[in-house]
Specification:
By secondary structure, this protein is α/β, with parallel strands linked by helices. The chain has helices at about 20-35, 60-65, 85-95, 120-135, 190-200, 215-230, 245-255, 260-280, 300-305, 320-330, 335, 345-350, 360-370, 370-380, 400-410, and strands at about 5-10, 40-45, 50-55, 70-80, 105-115, 140, 150-155, 160, 165, 180-185, 205-210, 235-245, 285, 310-315, 385, 395. Helix content is about 40%, strand content about 20%. The chain binds adenosine-5'-triphosphate and magnesium ion.
Length: about 425
Amino acid sequence: MGTRLYLIRLGEISLKGLNRPFFEKKLKNNIKTKLRPYHNVVTKQKGRLYFEIDNECPREQCDLAFSTTFGIVGYAEAVRVNKDMDTIKDTVRSLLKVSSFTNKGSFKVHAKRSDKNFPLSSHQLSCELADVVHESFPDLDVSLSDPDHILYIEIRNKAYIYTTMKKGPNGLPVSTAGKGMLLLSGGIDSPVAGYRMASRGMKLECIYFHAYPYTSEMALEKVKMLTSKIAPYLQGTRLHVVGFTEQQLWIKSHCNTDETTLMFRACMMKVATKLANIYDGTALVTGEALSQVASQTLDSMAFTNSTTDMLIIRPLVGMNKEEIMRTSEEIDTYNTSILPYEDCCVIFSPKHPLTRPDVEVENEHYREMGIDALLDKAVEETVTYDFFANGKEKVIADAEIAAKKADDMEDTE
Ligand code: ATP
Ligand code: MG
């Protein structure tokens, strides 16, 4: 039973100063979680992590781990050998045999000499190895600007050689920037909003407001599917499902029709704030984008902000729909998001919602609804699911969490 070596390229983390070890350690642990139960040994050098993994770990599991872990710019399966030219050349010869190199098109050698004691310069090394490539593939042209194939070599403590560098998701490791509660509907935007905040290191738990039977079981299934799709990027997450039927009906019958969307949003923020307090979140994250729909005007957002003391982060606020859709395709949530099960907002939304609400007037109308006790009830009855970093799900039937909720309710009374 041998091992495989993966070279991980780091980006923004390498620019960090004194706190770099903190980010590197998180990254290492985030990757390790995804490679369980396989044994792996990690070593670290400037701008690089090296994972040596049991051969028994399927390549697909490694690919999933590296391609979904924020902090990774790129990764490659590499060969590590001693820094003498004969060994290096022999290694290149055997690596080329199993690589995607063909005799068609062009190539370049990408050589990087970090160990300045190595006798050849990067350029000399490139030239020597280009000759080795030509032994096997005499028809390949050299193209430095747009090659079809690349042979990489890095001279550090050892020589690292590889031919395929795959893309990582970039950003910073999850759990380096506090925790937020993501308001996750079944739409296109909110999964992307979660992805964006996770890419800045935020840990997220998701909240979904479910108005059964006005929204179907399928709508909930869809949100669960979306949660499991983003779970690898989020390093695992929870999904809190808040039953909101009674509350929605109450809103509908206790405010003006054109205010229902605003009131619904106010109630969502208040419940999300309570859940954030229970689960130690310090921000709410939504998928709103300025002017995308009637309820996403500046005035409406100002009203929403006035309904909670908690920071509301809207990572998509300045993005166009196409940009958001492109990201949702990249993270593979798009096809799930466009499934036709409507979320509760759609069903309860008025034809002509108020787009320029007066913050004070609307807060007064909110108070007149007298809905606070019903919101507490919604929090108490919330059902929570755990989603692991590999996308698998389980219901938390956890007495500890129930006790946590009871405790918190007492504190706020
Ligand atoms: P999305 O594509 O994310 O559904 P949207 O364009 O449909 O967004 P709205 O329905 O106005 O816009 O919702 C704006 C934001 O409010 C959503 O991105 C999400 O963060 C939150 N939200 C809306 N409905 C729900 C819900 N049922 N459960 C949880 N969050 C919701
Ligand atoms: Mg929506």
